[in-house]
Design a protein that fits this description.
single chain, 327 residues, alpha/beta, TIM Barrel, eight-stranded parallel barrel, 11 helices, 38% helix, globular, binds ligand PBG
Length: 327
């Protein structure tokens, strides 16, 4: 029996300073993006399943933008929560629609200190809650939806969005939007493709956050959680179509897909730590089951270790501030 091993990896773990010296991955505020919900109501609204997150109003949004800029965040991702919805999702392309107005307000408040990003998807604007428009049989009509996405992209670009988050999972959405923006002279607008977006139970609290009207599921357009290879295919197609950044979503349950995309992608790879990942930690911590702060950092560093260049997370502000303040 060998009681004196010659290899002793514990040597590098013996003190905080030694551990800090050999740490492989770090978080930085500039690589965190805060998702922000904006309601059309007069007052901010709490979100029952996401303790600590609320719907902002057009009046409170500038304060959030200021706080995010002060914390050094890379950007904010805006989601609109309209009061009225219809079959075509008209509010998405209306310059006075809540999301387009929020984009303008945020862009002015940001004044170049962080990037203003907008969710490009119809689900908050349709009365049926799907990410696209429906055909006669009630299925999601891919190509008719692309026409809506193109109009939405132009409206968001006009409103001042710098990065468009294409989260609808329609085939050909990146190429359609890129071509339309370029034709309109908006070659400057960055496209973030939610390439590997899975049909996930972890979006549960988000549906609350945007007051989703969806009945049923999104399995005809979002990916089957059992399929890894398909996530890689979606990412490579989006890169061919002209995406500037690709994303994997959710993050925690899909770290293998994230790592594989990160290994192959010639462009930046982001991850979205979604509402259910947030709620799990918050609710488990509130129940006394886990150490909240350590769990937050561990979940984020795991996403970085898997290969994410930047992360969308509801903890962006809190983590960004603590990185700034050095604790
Ligand atoms: C679609 C969209 C969703 C999320 C971001 N963009 C919802 C969905 O696909 O059902 C989920 C984000 C989260 O859960 O935090 N507009």
């Amino acid at each position: 029996m060998t009681t004196h091993p010659s290899h002793r990896p514990r040597r590098l773990r013996q003190s905080p300073a030694m551990r800090r010296l050999v740490t492989e991955h770090t978080l930085s505020a500039s690589a965190l993006v805060l998702p922000v919900f904006v309601t059309e109501r007069d007052e901010p609204q709490p979100i029952a399943t996401m303790p600590g997150v609320r719907q902002e109003t057009l009046e409170t949004l500038p304060q959030v933008v200021d706080a995010a800029a002060d914390a050094g965040l890379g950007g904010i991702m805006l989601f609109g929560v309209p009061l009225a919805r219809d079959a075509a999702g008209s509010g998405a392309t209306d310059p006075d629609g809540i999301l387009n107005r929020a984009i303008g307000v945020a862009r002015t408040a940001a004044a170049g200190r962080l990037t203003v990003q907008a969710d490009l998807c119809l689900d908050e604007f349709t009365d049926h809650g799907h990410c696209g428009v429906l055909d006669a049989q009630g299925g999601v009509d891919n190509d008719a939806t692309l026409e809506r996405y193109v109009a939405m992209a132009l409206a968001q670009a006009d409103a001042g969005a710098e990065i468009l988050g294409l989260s609808g999972m329609m085939d050909g959405q990146v190429a359609a939007v890129r071509e339309a923006l370029d034709a309109a002279g908006r070659t400057d607008v960055v496209l973030l493709a939610y390439s590997a977006k899975y049909a996930s139970a972890f979006y549960g609290p988000f549906r609350d956050a945007v007051e989703s009207t969806l009945v049923g599921d999104r399995k005809t357009y979002q990916l089957d959680p059992a399929n890894g290879r398909e996530g890689l295919l979606e990412a490579s197609r989006d890169i061919e179509e002209g995406a500037d950044i690709v994303m994997v979503k959710p993050a925690g349950p899909y770290l293998d897909v994230l790592a594989a995309v990160a290994e192959r992608s010639p462009i930046p790879v982001w991850a979205y730590q979604v509402s259910g990942e947030y709620a799990m930690v918050e609710l488990a911590a509130a129940a006394g089951a886990i150490d909240r702060d350590r769990a937050i950092i561990e979940s984020l560093i795991g996403i970085r270790r898997a290969g994410a260049d930047a992360i969308l997370t509801y903890w962006a502000l809190e983590v960004g501030r603590s990185l700034r303040d050095g604790h």
